[in-house]
Amino acid sequence: MKKLTLQGRRILLLLHIIFAAIMLGMQAVFIILALTASVTSDSTVLHACYSIMNLLASSSVRASTIGVTVTGIMLSVMTSWKLFRYNWIIAKEVLTLVCIGVGIFGLYEWTLKGIEPTAQAGLGAWQTSGFTVNHTLLWIGIAAQTVSLIVMYMLSIWKPGGERRPYRKPLKEVKQT
């Protein structure tokens, strides 16, 4: 694969950082909205929190997750970092899979499942079968996503673990005649 020029690398890195910042910002918004939904005594606010979270999960969260994943892969493949050369990159790849699962699928589903009960029952949604469990799963997803993003930021800054040792085939034994 062709290597990036310095200018191309900087542009791609800038895009990667912007998408990552959007993801972290979305997590802050999700924490605020989920916390508001947890403590509100207004049924309209409860429904609005779930509606806004669902809108964000189906738009900004998906776009930023896809953007950071694509730019991250491009940066790895088109620079000397490579996809599997360093332990910290592999750790970021695993955490990216967590973010894809939680962000693209989990947050969307959990917020979608909360919209109808809050629209129909208002604050009575808390007594609706499964609503509390769904809200708890939403909180677990938000926490997992937030921790994953913070750890990925830390890995990007400190780059721990170093380079992986390349696999080397054992030398063939020489037959003696």
Please give a structural write-up:
The chain is built from five helices and no strands. By secondary structure, it is mainly alpha-helical. It has one domain. The longest helix is centred in the middle third of the chain and has 35 residues. The protein is elongated and about 80 Å long. The model has no long low-confidence stretch (mean pLDDT 93).
Describe the secondary structure blueprint for this structure:
Layout: H1 6-39, H2 43-58, H3 60-77, H4 87-121, H5 131-158
Helix pairs in contact: 1-2, 1-3, 1-5, 2-3, 2-4, 3-4, 4-5
- Overall pLDDT: 93
Share of helical residues? over 70%
Beta strand count: 0
What amount of the residues lies in strands? under 5%
Shape: elongated
**Gap between N and C termini, in Å?**
46 Å
- Helices and strands, in order, run as HHHHH
Largest sheet: none
Number of domains: 1
Radius of gyration: 22 Å
What kind of assembly state do the chains in view correspond to? Answer: single chain
Spans of at least 5 consecutive residues whose pLDDT stays below 50 are none
- Total DSSP helices: 5
Outline of this structure?
This is DUF2269 domain-containing protein. This protein has 177 residues and is mainly alpha-helical.
What are its keywords?
5 helices, 177 residues, elongated, mainly alpha
